[in-house]
Amino acid sequence: MEPQAKLLEVHRRLCGVFGCPITYHHALSPLDELVSSLLSHRTRNADSRRAFMNLRERFPGWEAVRDADTAHVQDALSPCTWPEAKAPALQRTLRAITEARGALDLDHLAAMDTADARAWLQALPGVGPKTAAAVLSFSALRGRALPVDSHHHRVAQRLGIIPANLAVGPAHRVLEALLPAEWDAQMVYDDHQVFMRHGQRTCHFHRPACRDCAVLDLCPHGAQTLSPPQG
């Protein structure tokens, strides 16, 4: 099966499992979503949420976070992994937005098409393809962009939709190009959600639950995992 046909069939089946359309978790402003996404790198969702709330509670606004003593920001980010790196990195990103915009906001993204908005975000220090797509898709912008996290990436690789040696960053462009042009933002969001949830709940990094997999017959990795030992 060709990659696009397989992706569409997997999407169809997993939507049956998880129930599409999937409700968006929240509607943060683009700037709030950017900060949240930067904190979430290699960090459990519950811990990055705690760190985000710490910033909101301890500082009157993102300008105050930008201008604060880095040690104070680092302390607020203690629930995250690597707060000593994330604190100065966050401040660098906030300063770069201010320099580019003359103010600390991302309201201009609403008037840009997705490709231009993505390019603008990725020109900021510390912002890669996943963070840019998360800002466009998850925030109140509700843009047509496909974030690819480690779960989504793993499932797509094991299914053979993308090559096994394709890194997460480049996978964003490849996977998004396979989506039908007529899909709206909700359907693209659903695609990310069902692949991610399948990776979290069934297609685990260690000991995937292949016998419980709704797409096992489409998965070369699953067939190899369940095949009897030779010899």
Quick rundown:
The chain is mostly helical and 231 residues long. 59% of the residues lie in helices and 0% in strands. It is built from 12 helices and no strands.
Blueprint (SSEs and pairs):
Elements: H1 3-18, H2 30-39, H3 45-58, H4 62-67, H5 70-76, H6 83-101, H7 114-122, H8 129-138, H9 150-159, H10 168-178, H11 185-201, H12 220-226
Helix pairs in contact: 1-11, 2-8, 5-6, 7-8, 9-11
Written account of the structure:
With 231 residues, the protein is mainly α. It has two domains: 100 residues, Orthogonal Bundle (Endonuclease Iii, domain 2); 109 residues, Hypothetical protein, domain 2 (Endonuclease III, domain 1). It is built from twelve helices and no strands. α2 packs across α8, α5 crosses α6 and α9 packs across α11. The longest helix is centred in the middle third of the chain and has 19 residues. The radius of gyration is 19 Å and the shape is globular. The two termini are 30 Å apart. The model has no long low-confidence stretch (mean pLDDT 96).
